[in-house]
Design brief:
The chain has 162 residues and is an alpha/beta fold. The chain is built from five helices and seven strands; from the N terminus they run E-H-E-H-E-H-E-E-E-H-E-H. It has a single domain (2-161), classed as 3-Layer(aba) Sandwich (Rossmann fold), CATH 3.40.50.360.
């Protein structure tokens, strides 16, 4: 299953939805993570907050391919995208294991294929390096086999990157 998480205006909704199995709009119409870890322990992969992201752990956890479309924010995800990723911590468990000779949380949904980040907006070379490193580490931590980062100065070429 291909999931696209994006922070674009609603004018891009139809294009994004036509390119994936599930589109998650990071539009800010949900509560930020409270850090209670209930999605890890009390109600595995389900947030206690009753909003659009209550099941986001399960939705992202079942993705073979996760494509994140985000505006650059100092070499990191936009706040709206980061809020959704924070709410998806339940894709793993609180238990630890070794992956690639490093300690990581045990995956609740198994391994995945591609963690792809499409970054738009002004971005310096240093911010590009930060994004590449962050995407690679996020992919390893969430059980993705590979990561890819694409930088777009504007959104004219977005559709071909999805």
């Amino acid at each position: 299953m291909k999931v696209i998480l994006y922070d674009l205006d609603s004018q891009f909704d139809e294009m994004v939805k036509s390119r994936c199995d599930l589109a998650l709009a990071a539009d800010g119409k949900y509560a930020p993570c409270q850090g209670c870890f209930g999605c890890w322990t009390k109600h595995p992969a389900e947030c206690f907050m009753k909003d659009r992201l209550q099941q986001v752990c399960r939705l992202i956890g079942k993705a073979d391919e996760l494509v994140i479309v985000t505006k650059n924010l100092y070499g990191g995800y936009s706040t709206a995208v980061k809020n959704v990723l924070d709410r998806s911590i339940g894709t793993s468990t609180p238990f630890s294991t070794y992956r690639g000779r490093q300690m990581h949380h045990t995956l609740r949904y198994g391994k995945h294929d591609l963690w792809k980040v499409v970054v738009y907006g002004d971005i310096s070379d240093a911010e590009k390096d930060t994004f590449r490193y962050m995407a690679e580490r996020n992919a390893v931590n969430d059980g993705y086999q590979r990561s890819e980062v694409v930088f777009l100065e504007n959104l004219n070429r977005l559709e071909e990157q999805l």
